[in-house]
């Protein structure tokens, strides 16, 4: 892993720490002002203020006490420019605080990060639930 890749992954680690602490303000600060946050069910939350507000509601309500946990495999970090990185990783959440995503809560996560004057920020995020399309065909 290069130093630049580690800088980018450190942002994702801080996202996890903020989520696991239920700290919506810290979570929101890791996004750009005009970020897009696409949830696992396809809703887009545009902008840092909306991302923070929505997560405050989640952390005080249905996701209170939940933990983000890594999925299988290592995150893939790719720089499309020196100041723009795309990360694809696995992960999910645990409502019981366990160390692995609970059934039905495993996702493939895609992040676009940009380097700003004060460090790396998430400009776009998409959470896509992992599913088996062949299971639906039967």
Automatic annotation (TrEMBL):
Gene3D superfamilies: 3.10.450.50. InterPro entries: DUF4440, NTF2-like_dom_sf, Steroid_delta5-4_isomerase. Residues 8-122 form the DUF4440 domain. NCBIfam families: SgcJ/EcaC family oxidoreductase (TIGR02246). This is SgcJ/EcaC family oxidoreductase. It comes from Amycolatopsis speibonae. The lineage of its organism: Bacteria, Bacillati, Actinomycetota, Actinomycetes, Pseudonocardiales.
